[in-house]
Amino acid sequence: MKFSQTFIPTLREVPADAVIASHRLMFRSGMARKLANGLFTYLPLGLRAFRKVENIIREEMNAIGSLEIKLSVVAPGELWKESGRWESMGESMLKVKNRTGADLVISPTAEEAVTGIVRDELSSYKQLPISVYQINAKYRDEIRPRYGVMRGREFTMKDAYSYHVDEKSLDETYQKMGTAYRRIFKRCGLAVLPVRADSGAMGGSGSEEFMVESEIGDNTLLLCRECEYAANVEKAGCKPDYEAAGALADAAPLEKIPTPAARTIAELCAFLKTDAKTFIKTLIYRAVNVELDLSDAPGCAFLKRVRLAPEAPAVYAEAFFAACIRGDLDVNEMKLAALLKASEVGLASDADVERLTGAPVGFAGPVGLASLPVVADETTAALNDAVAGALEKDAHYRHVAYGRDFTPWLVADVRTVKAGDRCPACGGELYEKKGNELGHIFKLGYKYTKSMNVRFLDENGASQTPVMGSYGIGVDRTLASIIEEHHDDAGIVWPMSVAPFHVVIVPIKYEGAVKSAADAIAVGLEKSGVEALVDDRNERAGVKFNDADLIGIPFRIVVGEKNLTLEAPSVEVRRRGEPEAKRVPVDAVVQETAGMVFDELMKLG
Ligand code: ATP
Ligand code: MG
C-alpha cells in the first residue's frame, strides 16, 4: 500500500478536548475523527487496527464454539417492554418512533433481541446449550462522553449470549468465555485484571469484569497483597474488623443527650470526645424499581407493587430506606442496590429526610425509627455502646445497643471496602487501583428468559425455562486501551497483532534506484504475507520519520541512495520504540523482516 494512495491525515496539533494519550494519538495519527460529541469516524488507518482487534475477538469466540450472528441495530420496543427494561433502562437508551408510530430502540445491548429469537426457535433441550455472538454497533446516550472512543455514545461491542438447560451447563460456558477473554486480551498485548463484579441487581449468580489498570479508570478495584483476590469496589468484601458485641446485660442504659451545633460525625466526635467507630451513621436512601418484597417492612404497608411488563417481576416504583453503618465507614450504594434488587439507589432529598425521620438532616438514627425499613451494615450489629441520632434536632442517643434499642429490618454487608481493610479470602492487606472495564462476563440467571417466557421441553417432556449468560467486550475501548499501554513521546508503538501495517518503508527520495528498491521490498514483503506501507510522499525525510513514529508501525525500513550504492547494498531496519537501526543487506531484508514479524505474531499467541 502506498501512503499517497491511502488517507492518513496526521496532525501536529492536539485536539483541545483530548486529555489522554490514546485520544490524542488516535486523532494525531489520522486514525479517527470526531463526528459529534460521542460519535466517531474511523479513517482507513484506524479501521485497519480496529478490524484486527475484531478479528482476534472473532477467532477466539469461534474457537469456543460461539456462533456469529448479526442483529439489526434498531430493535422493536415491544421486546424491551416485555423484559421491563423499556422503563428501567432510563435515559441512556435512545428510543425513536418510525413513520407508523411504532416504538423502536437503538440497541444499547441485545439481551432482549437475542432472547426473542431464541424464544421463537427453541423447542427441545437437544438444541441447548447454544451460544451466539455478534460484533455490532451499540448506542448509549451517555451523559458525558469522554476520552475519545473510550466512552462514546455509539460504539462497537462484541456481545455474546448463551442459553442452557441448567446452571451447570451455564457454568461451563461461563468458564470458557473467561478463558477466551484472557486469550483475547493477551493477543492484543494487554495486561488485564479479571475482578469479581456485582451481579446482584440483575438477579445473576456470577460476574467477572476484565479491567486494565488506568489512572482515568472509572472503577475502583481492591486487590490483595497476599493472594489472588481482586474485586470491583461495588462487590468487594472484607474480613470483619470488629469483635462480637458483649452481653446486653452489661450494656449501659440508653440515654438521650443534647448535641447542639454538632451534626457531622467529626463535630460529634470532638463534642463527645470519642471515636467515629462508636457511632452509628444513619443515611436515608431513595431506591427506584425495588424488586425485594417489602410487605413486612416498616412503613411500607401502603406501597403498591407494579409490573413494568406483564411477565416482568413486580417492583415498587419508589421506596425509602434507612441504612446504618459504623461511623468511620461509608455505605456502598451499589451493594445496597443489589441487596434491594433496585435499579437505582441514591441519597434522599433533605425534604424527604425531614418528612420521613421528623428531624433535619444529621439527626437520623435507628432507635424508634418506625417509618422506614432499617438496613443495618454488619458492623452495627457488633455495637452495644454506640452514639446515634435521636430523630430530633440537636439530640443524640448514647449507649445505643443493637438488639436492645433497635432491631433492623435487614442486616447485610453494605460497606464500602477501602485500602487497608483485610482480604475476605486470606486476611492480607487490600490495596486500591483504578481500572477501566474492557469486558464483562455475566451469569444472568432467569431474568430475561422468565420475563420473556422462553420455554423448552426437557428429556422427560416437561416444559422448562432456560438459564442465560451474557458476555460483552468493547472493541473501541480495547483499541484505545492498547494505545494507552503502548505509546511513547513520539507516538503509538503497536503490538504486532493489531498494528495497521507490520512494516513501513521510507524511501528518502521516492525516485530512481531508491524507488525501485523500496517497491521491490514492499512486493516481497506482501508476497510473504507481511503488510507494508510505502511512504511515497514527496516530503522531507524528517517529516516521514516523524509520521512513521506517530502512526507506530512496528518495523521501519529506510531506503537511501547512499546505502544502496555501497559495495554490499543495504537498508536500515528499525524496531519502533528502539533507538538503534540495524543495517541489513537489500537482498536479505524481506526474509529477515518477515521472520521478525512472524516471530512477534507467534509470541502474542
Ligand atoms: P461502563 O461501566 O464503562 O459504562 P458498562 O458496565 O455499562 O460499562 P457493559 O454493559 O458491561 O458496560 O458493556 C460491555 C462493554 O462495552 C464494556 O465492558 C465496555 O468495554 C464497552 N462499553 C460500554 N459502554 C461504552 C461506551 N460508552 N463507550 C465505549 N465502550 C463502552
Ligand atoms: Mg459492565
Describe the structure concisely.
The chain is an alpha+beta fold.
The tally of strands reads 32
Largest sheet: 9 strands, mixed
Total domain units: 3
Rg over CA atoms? 30 Å
Terminal residue distance: 26 Å
Q: Average pLDDT, to the nearest integer?
A: 95
CATH class of the largest domain: Alpha Beta
The CATH superfamily of the largest domain bears the name Bira Bifunctional Protein, Domain 2
Percent of residues in beta strands: 25-35%
Computed structural class: alpha+beta
Instruction: Indicate the overall shape.
Output: elongated
What's the CATH architecture of the largest domain? 2-Layer Sandwich
Indicate the percent of residues in helices. Answer: 25-40%
- In the CATH hierarchy, the third-tier topology of the largest domain is known as BirA Bifunctional Protein, domain 2
Task: Report on this structure.
The strands form eight sheets. Strands 3, 7, 8, 9, 10, 11, 12, 22 and 25 form a nine-stranded mixed β-sheet that branches. Strand 31 and strand 32 form a beta hairpin. By secondary structure, the chain is α+β, with helices and mostly antiparallel strands. Helix 1 packs across helix 11 (475-485) and helix 12 (512-527) runs parallel beside helix 15 (586-604). The chain is elongated. The chain has three domains: 17-70 and 107-236 and 432-483, BirA Bifunctional Protein, domain 2 (2-Layer Sandwich), CATH 3.30.930; 248-412, YbaK protein, CATH 3.90.960.10; 501-604, Rossmann fold (3-Layer(aba) Sandwich), CATH 3.40.50.800. 27% of the residues lie in helices and 28% in strands. It contains 15 helices and 32 strands. Residues 437, 440 line the site of magnesium ion.
